[in-house]
Amino acid sequence: MGKMLKTLAAQIRQYRKATIATPLLTLLEVVMEVLIPMVMASIIDDGIEKGDMGHVFLCGGIMLVMAAMSLFFGILGGRTAAYASSGFACNLRDSLFTHIQEFSFHNIDRFSTAGLVTRLTTDVTNIQNAFQMVMRICVRAPIMLVSSLVLAIIINPKVSLVFVVAILVLAPILFAICRRAMPLFDKVFDRYDELNASVQENISGIRVVKAFVREEHENGKFTKAADKIYEMFVKAESTVVLNNPVMMFVVYTCILALSWIGAKMIVAGSLTTGELTSLFAYVFSVLMSLMMLSMIFVMLTLSLASARRIAEVLEEEPDLVSPEHADFDIPDGSVDFEQVSFAYGKGKPVLTDIDFHVKAGETIGILGGTGSAKSSLVNLISRLYDVQTGCVKVGGKDVRGYDLETLRNEVSVVLQKNVLFSGTILENLRWGDKEATEEECIRACKMACADEFITQLPEGYNTYIEQGGTNVSGGQKQRICIARALLKKPKILILDDSTSAVDTATDARIRRAFREEIPGTTKFIIAQRISSIQDADRILVLEDGRIDAFDTHENLLANNEIYRDVYNSQTQGGGDFDENGGEA
Q: Which pLDDT belongs to residue 492?
């Protein structure tokens, strides 16, 4: 708990002054409020009953000034509370998002996408509301409670026992209610993750949903997730709602007890009418303070679950970081795998005893069946994961010795399922180099054979790309992504089956452009089509996470059964329909 609070408190930062000022202003507001009943008692006892109208006007003026000051401090405290809580929430979201950007793939695998979205939205909002309540009500209620109780004791200690009994009865009941509700709210947020996952999956795959007419199935899945939240909230709120009837019972019991005891004491002459009136005001203050405290318990119970979930992300340490004395110099694009084995977490190794060496500027094809760990292998080059045994070297140096940003700027990866972000084509291209000129962007697009379709668009390079690139085809998206990677001018370029949606003629033209335009760049091409890699300098054949062969196309065709079987299966049917449209 202490570590969690320290983690969250660090996000207050520049809003410390407002955070400190809010309780102080609230304190002044409460002081003015609790003194008003004392002045009111004086009006009744020393003014009205004695017929001293001057005293009535004097005390009335004092009450007006105190009420105005209370209002002023209340408004000012409300503004500083809103400023501090909104800023705190802003810092939380910013820190969460920034920290997530530092995560390795392994860190991200620990949290679901929907879970991270819930933490950045619903959980932060809960914390914001709780923080504002803590600064205002959490200060106001205890001070009001204690000061009202002290002043009631000063007026009449005997009658004040009513307040003490009420507190002793109410406090343990409220504590028991909140303790029972807390684990229920924890479960509610787990259900929120499931709901967000359902929404995210449905929206991102809406075309597939419609193509397979699965709307009814998706509606059912969403309804099931929503019903689970409904059931958990009903259960939690049914527990929390007991606060109100318990509170009301205690309030009215206190009023009845105070009326009965007070009336007898007035008749006996040991209590004045003004004192009884002020005691009524204080009994309401005490019980309202208890009501506010019960609300605080409910809000804190709700927000504590959110706080734990947020702290869990903020306290997650990225397991891939730059070394203390990082190397910022990458001599060339040579790559060496030396007895490398790799597994995801504590699972079974997906790569075993991988050992091969690539010179700078070579083009390496990678072929293997589904699950042969082709993508896992190339992910180790840019240190998206770390090896379990052995080492991966780039430029003759272990990748674990490089500054991460430097390494990843020199290793450009184009995935099969690449992402385009909302914005113009030029804006997307400049992810590769934010300083790239339009001419450099056009040159990269020509190398990637993207210029030919971009120039046909109404706005050309200023055409707006919708979120996820939904207004361009799969092949067009891949070519834009290749151009984006080329703009980085990397020493190593990795194409992870990134021409799968491109016809073989265009694929061949892209590969020819690579040979002619970036001969010094080391290129790794993962492909399912042999035509995409047969002109590579060497081809790596993977089988079940091991190297089955590493040689030229001709030698593999003559000596490797796996490669030969794939080649025959792809060529005996006559090849792709446009294969002859490729290189001359």
A: 94
Neighbours of 362 (CB within 10 A): 17
- Write out the two tokens for 453: 């379709």
Pairing of strands 522-526, 351-358: unpaired
The phi and psi torsions of 272 (rounded to 5 degrees) equal -90, 165
**372-381, 392-401, 502-511, 515-524: lowest mean pLDDT where?**
502-511
Distance CA 114, CA 31 (A): 46
Tokens standing for residue 548: 């089955």
d(CA 529, CA 571): 10
For the chain, report the end-to-end CA distance as a whole number of angstroms. 69
Q: How far is CA 350 from CA 132, 385, 543, in A?
A: 49, 12, 10
What pLDDT sits at residue 327? 92
298 in Cβ contact with 178 (< 8 Å): yes
Query: In whole angstroms, what is the distance from residue 315 CA to residue 340 CA?
Result: 30
Per-residue pLDDT tens digits for 542-568? 998 999 999 999 999 999 998 988 888
Q: Is 448 exposed, middle or buried (0-12, 13-18, 19+ CB in 10 A)?
A: buried
Pairing of strands 522-526, 363-368: parallel
User: How far apart are the C-alpha atoms of 390 and 303, rounded to whole Å?
Assistant: 46
Question: At 573, is the pLDDT very low, low, confident or very high (cuts 50, 70, 90)?
Answer: low
Bridge partners (DSSP) listed for residue 551: 539
**Interatomic CA distance for residues 57 and 47, integer angstroms:** 9
Rounded to whole angstroms, how far apart are CA atoms 377 and 310?
33
* Alpha carbon separation from 169 to 5, 248, 252 (Å, rounded): 30, 13, 14
Task: Kindly list the distances between the CA atom of residue 315 and the CA atoms of 122, 309, 318, 329, 404, in Å, as whole numbers in the listed order.
Answer: 19, 10, 9, 31, 21
Q: Quote the strand ranges of 309-382, DSSP E.
A: 335-342, 351-358, 363-368
Q: What is the pLDDT of residues 103-137, one digit of tens each?
A: 877 777 777 777 788 888 888 988 898 888 888 88
Q: Residues 6 or more apart from 392 whose CB is under 8 A from it?
A: 335, 336, 337, 338, 340, 380, 381, 383, 398, 399
Whole-number Cα distances in Å, 575 to 449, 508, 516, 579, 581: 22, 14, 26, 7, 12
- Strands 464-465, 538-543: pairing is unpaired
Sheet containing strand 397-398, strands side by side: 351-358, 335-342, 389-394, 397-398
Is 0.90 topped by the overall pTM?
Answer: no
**Phi, then psi, of 338 in degrees rounded to 5:** -120, 105
Cα dihedral angle (358, 363, 364, 366), rounded to 10 degrees?
160
Handedness of CA 238, 244, 245, 250 (dihedral sign): positive
Angle between helices 215-240 and 157-204 (to 10 degrees): 170
Q: 119 near 5, Cβ under 8 Å? A: no
User: Which letter does DSSP use for residue 317 in this model?
Assistant: P
**List of E strands, 100-237:** none
What DSSP designation does 327 have?
B
Length of the chain: 584
